[in-house]
Write a structure and sequence with these properties.
Elements (H helix, E strand, L loop, with lengths): L1 H23 L12 E5 L4 H15 L3 E5 L2 H9 L6 E5 L1 H9 L9 E6 L1 E6 L7 H4 L5 E4 L5 H12 L3 H5 L2 E4 L2 H9 L5 E5 H5 L4 E6 L8 E6 L9 H7 L3 H9 L3 E2 L2
Parallel strand pairs: 1-2, 1-3, 6-7, 6-8
Antiparallel strand pairs: 3-10, 4-10, 4-11, 5-8, 5-9
Helix pairs in contact: 2-11
């Protein structure tokens, strides 16, 4: 009986807190302008953006809040007025959609980075490349219909004549983060991931780089969303072009685009 009363009391407190919080949310015109910068980006960019954000905060003292999701999901959040000051998305098609739907400020849109598809193994696993191990050892690959890494990975492997062999012992996953996790846990011998996934884990070694000509370029863009609030949003975007930020991005597996 006492437990039931306590549980009911806690539920009442939560309900009261929710109502109080809801009434405390200011109207859009009264929204407080925070100096921090909220960044939406692709999951595979989390480490690279965090590293650049660390340099930015050391220089300016302004914190950066990073939230990750696939670009289509990020744009939906922006469409529903989620707080975001800078968005780093993938693909020219998504950039065009965001512009046409007036989700971003067109004048701030610029190409930023290029990523690459690589084959990673645990550094301690010893020698062995994709051609030697395809079909013989398990490899984690993103399912082609699910994400860009999967579709472009299939295209690249087909151009190399390795798709059928890889498929014979493949472990399908929904994104490169899952592929990297399986590799880290020793569940697979190889993983087809982005260069940024390998750059974020010191236990990984790059055993193969898929030829650039074998798949479409994987390009990221940056822009300010229409509902951007931070007075430092444009300054952070400009900071991404500074030499130390570019060097950090390159070290994390990204090619900085002109």
């Amino acid at each position: 009986m006492t437990m039931s009363l306590a549980r009911g009391h806690n539920v009442w407190l939560l309900a009261f807190a929710f109502c109080l919080g809801a009434t405390a949310i200011p109207a859009r015109g009264d929204y407080p302008v925070a100096p921090d910068v909220v960044v939406f980006c692709e999951p595979t960019l989390q480490q690279a953006v965090a590293d650049v954000a660390g340099l930015w905060r050391k220089e300016t003292g302004v914190p950066v809040r990073i939230f990750t999701s696939p670009t289509w999901a990020l744009l939906q959040q922006i469409a529903h007025h989620a707080r975001d000051d800078v968005v780093i998305g993938e693909g020219d098609t998504r950039a065009a959609e965001a512009t046409e739907q007036h989700l971003i400020k067109a004048e701030t849109l610029q190409r930023l980075w290029r990523n690459r598809l690589i084959v990673a193994a645990l550094a301690k696993a010893g020698p062995g490349n994709l051609a030697e191990l395809a079909g013989k050892e398990p490899i984690a690959i993103v399912d082609p219909p699910v994400a860009v890494a999967g579709a472009e990975g299939e295209k690249a492997l087909r151009s190399l004549g390795l798709w059928d062999a890889v498929q014979a012992n493949a472990v399908g996953v929904v994104d490169t983060a899952d592929a990297a996790f399986l590799l880290e846990q020793g569940k697979v011998r190889l993983a087809l991931v982005y260069a940024t996934d390998a750059g974020a884990d010191p236990s990984f070694a790059v055993v193969d780089r898929l030829p650039d000509a074998s798949y479409s370029p994987i390009v990221y863009w940056v822009a300010e969303p229409q509902p951007s609030l931070s007075p430092n949003a444009s300054k952070f975007i400009a900071f991404l072009r500074q030499t130390d930020a570019q060097e950090r991005s390159h070290a994390d597996g990204l090619e900085v685009l002109p």
